[in-house]
Amino acid sequence: MKVLIVADEVSKKYYDYYEPGMLKDIDLIISAGDLPPQYLEFLTTMSCCDVLYVHGNHDGIYDTRPPEGCICVDGCVYNHKGLRILGLGGSQRYKLGTHMYSEKEMRARVRKLKFQLFRNKGFDILLTHAPIEGHHDGEDLPHKGFAVFGELIEKYHPKYMIHGHQHKNYGKAYQQESWYKDTLVINAYVSYILEIPDELLQKRR
């Protein structure tokens, strides 16, 4: 499965300079947040695959104007053709607004998913907007990650974690990919192509 992952800034390649057929070999598109709804609608229109998303901390517009034709997987375990995706959008709460949470509030969101996690026997991808606390995150509160994300990885051992929120111009805080335990952590800033092996999907088809 070939997956296009996007986050934080619109890709000029897939929007301004888009050419017909550019997405023909993409099997799934995933957004890790902070993107205009019009951009996700463009991607779903120009591709032949589902577009899944979680909210970023700047996606308050989605509350009244969600991206049409796309699937919100924020706050659930979503099964896409055998690929189990746990979606937990938002960032640390640093001001009033939607899609921002304290560590305690994010833990409460995770507890609500206990039955879904049990029913799906875990998950293959942890899809978030914010990173893990102490891993790919920043020192300031707006860019600090969540400790509970690391605990989820340690308990369920997903193959991948996908997040956004950390931009390339943030300096040393930015890493595109690294390992946390046995999980490949990917910063989806702008765009990233992920090839998921068929063996991961065939287990549950």
Give a quick rundown of the structure.
With 205 residues, the chain is of the alpha/beta class.
- Overall pLDDT, averaged? 94
How many helices in DSSP terms?
A: 5
Q: Tell me the series of helices and strands, N- to C-terminal.
A: EEHEEEEEEHHEHEEEEH
CATH superfamily: Metallo-dependent phosphatases
Task: Kindly describe this structure.
By secondary structure, the chain is of the alpha/beta class. It has one domain: Purple Acid Phosphatase, chain A, domain 2 (4-Layer Sandwich). It has helices at 37-46, 103-112, 114-119, 147-156, 198-202, and strands at residues 2-7, 28-31, 51-53, 71-72, 76-80, 83-88, 91-92, 100-101, 125-128, 160-163, 177-180, 183-187, 190-195. The strands form three sheets. The protein has a six-stranded mixed β-sheet, covered by helices on one side. Strands 4-3-2-1-13 form a five-stranded mixed β-sheet, with helices on one face. A two-stranded parallel sheet has the order 7-8. The longest helix is centred in the first third of the chain and has 10 residues, at 37-46. The protein is globular and about 45 Å long.
